[in-house]
Specification:
Layout lengths: L1 H11 L3 H24 L5 E7 L2 H9 L1 H6 L3 E7 L6 E8 L5 E7 L5 E6 L6 H4 L3 H13 L4 H10 L10 H21 L1
Antiparallel strand pairs: 1-5, 2-3, 3-4, 4-5
Bound molecules: zinc ion.
């Protein structure tokens, strides 16, 4: 008898009903936050990595992410999520406007780094190396490669001292070089 009682109580026991109720509230809040987000500048973030706690994520930002982009990340604003939602601690690249944030759910210690899904643009201070320009000209004019392929190639050869270029920079380089060629042709 007591066995059946315990089993029946354990059936009734789950507090899931309550938890589900809370979940729906959270969903509503998320929707509100999302619609606000899309109204502003549409910055796209992609998941970079998840960490078991906040200090590990901080360490990754100060260590590996600094090295990858040869920059430092300055702590910016903290966006506090409503209710049981997560907080977002923003950081900005010190050499350009790329942002990242650490998403910090209030209910668990696991955190995720999200980073803006765009190449860094640091050339205003460094300039595009001549050898990168040369490769761009060769790939575009001689090998007739698509700009996207050239950008991908550069991204894969950062270790060789090449830099990433965005579409605007690439287009400017190619247009300038075309003008130069025209001048040469006119001269001949
Ligand atoms: Zn940057």
């Amino acid at each position: 008898m007591s066995d059946s009682e315990t089993s029946s109580t354990s059936l009734l026991e789950p507090v899931n009903g309550l938890e589900q109720g809370q979940d729906t509230d959270e969903d509503c809040e998320e929707l509100v936050v999302d619609s606000k987000k899309t109204r502003g500048k549409a910055k796209e973030y992609k998941e970079y990595q998840s960490f078991s706690n906040y200090s590990e994520a901080l360490y990754a930002i100060n260590d590996e992410l600094d090295k990858i982009q040869d920059t430092t990340w300055a702590k910016k604003n903290l966006k506090v999520g409503k209710g049981a939602k997560s907080d977002k601690q923003f950081f900005k690249c010190s050499k350009c406007n790329i942002m990242l944030y650490i998403e910090r759910p209030k209910t668990n210690s696991r955190v995720i780094i999200f980073i803006q899904d765009e190449p860094h643009n640091h050339e205003t201070k460094k300039g595009i190396p001549d050898k990168t320009k040369q490769i761009i000209y060769t790939m575009y004019f001689e090998q007739k490669q698509q700009p996207k392929k050239i950008q991908r190639w550069l991204r894969e050869h950062l270790d060789d001292g090449h830099v990433e270029v965005n579409s605007v920079q690439l287009n400017n380089l190619i247009q300038n070089e075309k003008k130069k060629e025209m001048i040469v042709l006119n001269w001949i």
